[in-house]
Specification:
six-stranded parallel beta sheet; Jelly Rolls; Rossmann fold; about 350 residues; elongated; five-stranded antiparallel beta sheet; alpha/beta
Length: about 350
């Protein structure tokens, strides 16, 4: 079934980003009362925008943010207040935000942010949170704040009104959009609800996605990559041949990379590491000898059916311990980035053998 909406637009602060998560970052600027100050600051921000609307006046969000902090925390030094204002681009996302946005993209739905923030602030906050949307809309374009109907009219440039959904966890914002005739979803994140009934309610973005864009399991379910379809266009290390099987491009994987590794008989790779990525190697056939350490001074061996775990940043070398048979392995990594940092290491002449024994199997 095709999705009901072509566009889903989100409020930013409190909807995609968790404003309460800012308190920790503010402590270094505002002291131990940072959480209390943040609550009053947020309230003052919104009240100031509504006052500006009533007076047919306008000031950009960064100015409103600075002025309201000075009002609620006059005793904080000016330099500390400036630093605290800068922290608004570091507000953390809710845990499900990235996955929900990815699900909507996979369903062919355009995503947007419609926020009181300035466009540079919105983009910086999204970049810091590693969130990706198709369109950023700021009230700067109409020089008036939510819930003025002119703000929600910005959505009309994205698509037909009946095919556009606006999502907010702020009841007053959801109510403003609904009174403007919009289709609205309210996220129940603990804020007062809208005074008019929204079209959708959900406790979080994941739950909302299940309502408006249920997964197409046929197109986005189990994926099989044939052995004949492996991609050798991936970073290589001398002495080793890697081929990618499970990637975002081939299978839609977002957090894993998997493929095969072949080391020819009596061959070894160069020393390397994989940056922040964790790796698991499963030995299919052959005999693997691993060396690791700053001078590759430690060694251990693994055979068919064994698993090898390589932590992030560990300098290591894979060696085929057989003079006659190739070493074939399956490799799984914790990230999509094909990080391979080849190293120039003078190895220890006699590495120390390490028995791979965990605390349960001595």
């Amino acid at each position: 079934m095709p999705p009901r909406f072509d566009v889903v637009a989100f409020d930013l602060y409190g909807t995609l980003l968790d404003v309460r998560g800012l308190a920790g970052a503010l402590e270094k600027h505002l002291g131990p009362r940072a959480g209390e100050i943040l609550t009053g600051w947020r309230k003052a921000q919104l009240e100031r925008t509504w006052e500006l609307n009533r007076n047919a006046s306008y000031a950009p969000w960064d100015r409103v943010t600075a002025e309201t902090l000075a009002h609620v925390a006059p005793g904080v030094p000016a330099a500390a207040r400036v630093a605290a204002c800068d922290e608004w681009i570091t507000v953390p996302p809710y845990p499900e935000t990235g996955g929900a946005l990815a699900s909507l993209r996979a369903a062919g739905i355009k995503t947007a942010v419609l926020s009181n923030g300035t466009a540079p602030m919105i983009r910086a906050a999204l970049l810091h949170a590693d969130l990706h949307v198709d369109v950023v809309l700021s009230v700067d374009a109409v020089r008036v704040y939510k819930p003025d109907p002119r703000v929600y009219a910005l959505l009309d440039d994205l698509g037909p009104r009946e095919r556009t959904l606006f999502v907010s966890a702020n009841g007053w914002d959801a109510e403003g959009a609904k009174r403007d005739g919009r289709t609205v979803a309210f996220l129940e994140r603990g804020n007062p609800p809208p005074g008019v009934e929204p079209d959708f309610k959900a406790r979080n973005l994941r739950e909302l996605c299940d309502q408006i864009a249920p997964p197409d399991w046929r197109a986005h379910g189990v994926r099989i990559v044939k052995g004949s379809e492996l991609d050798t266009n991936t970073p290589q290390t001398p002495g080793m041949n890697r081929a990618a099987a499970i990637t975002y491009a081939r299978a839609g994987a977002e957090k894993l990379w998997a493929g095969t590794v072949k080391i020819h008989a009596n061959a070894k790779t160069g020393a390397h590491h994989h940056g922040p990525v964790e790796s698991v190697i499963y030995v299919v056939s052959g005999k693997a000898r691993m060396r690791w350490g700053d001078r590759l001074e430690f060694t251990a061996e693994a055979g068919p059916g064994d698993f090898i775990y390589v932590p992030p940043y560990v300098p290591h070398q894979e060696i085929n311990a057989s003079r006659d048979e190739p070493l074939d392995c399956v490799l799984v990594r914790s990230g999509q980035e094909p990080v391979v940092v080849n190293l120039d290491i003078a190895p220890a002449e006699a590495p120390e053998e390490v028995r791979w024994v965990d605390g349960l199997h001595r």
